[in-house]
Amino acid sequence: MSEDTFNEELIEEVKANEQIWNTAHSDHRRASKLDAVWYDIGIKLNRAPAQCRKRWKTLRDRFKRENNRLKGSEGQAASSWPLYTLLTFLRPSSSPRAAISNNMAGTLPDQTYRNSSTGEQSDSPHSDPLSTFDFDSTIHELENLRSNSPLDLAPDELWFLAIGKELKTLSRKRRIHVRQATLKALYEDLEEE
Hints:
Elements: H1 3-16, H2 18-21, H3 31-45, H4 49-72, E1 113-114, E2 121-122, H5 129-132, H6 135-148, H7 155-167, H8 172-192
Antiparallel strand pairs: 1-2
Helix pairs in contact: 1-4, 3-4, 6-7
Region (Disordered): 100-130
Domain HTH myb-type: 36-64
Pfam families: MADF_DNA_bdg (PF10545)
């Protein structure tokens, strides 16, 4: 499949899956749903889901630049980019986000955190992700990924994919801490060898 054909087919697949591009869609922020959609798109296009995602980000970003350039020009000249017209469905969702400054602290709504394994809600983020981590479910997901995946992934790569869903339930600060601790442990083991 040529790159032009891949780009066009990818755009059609994404257009058909509104949860990817429509920020108002109920599943837009549900990582597990989006992962499943990207997996299906990867299968249909015979590419790795990560490759499809990366290419989509490139196409979407280029569309936003083209769209902003056209908005800024006096006359509404048409874009010379051949894929621009295929991506016009993004126009309603390509408006810039409202900026949040540090001066607005305290004016934001209260954050509620949900424990993904128990479904319980609390006002504070998870204190210890391992205490609520569902190892059996993750192992089951890992085995399913390995047996059903057309991609040739090593068990460790699949393990990292499986824990990704749990990481997404943590606050940004906690995710960074977990990443740093993981890297530190890896580097310490490498130094011992």
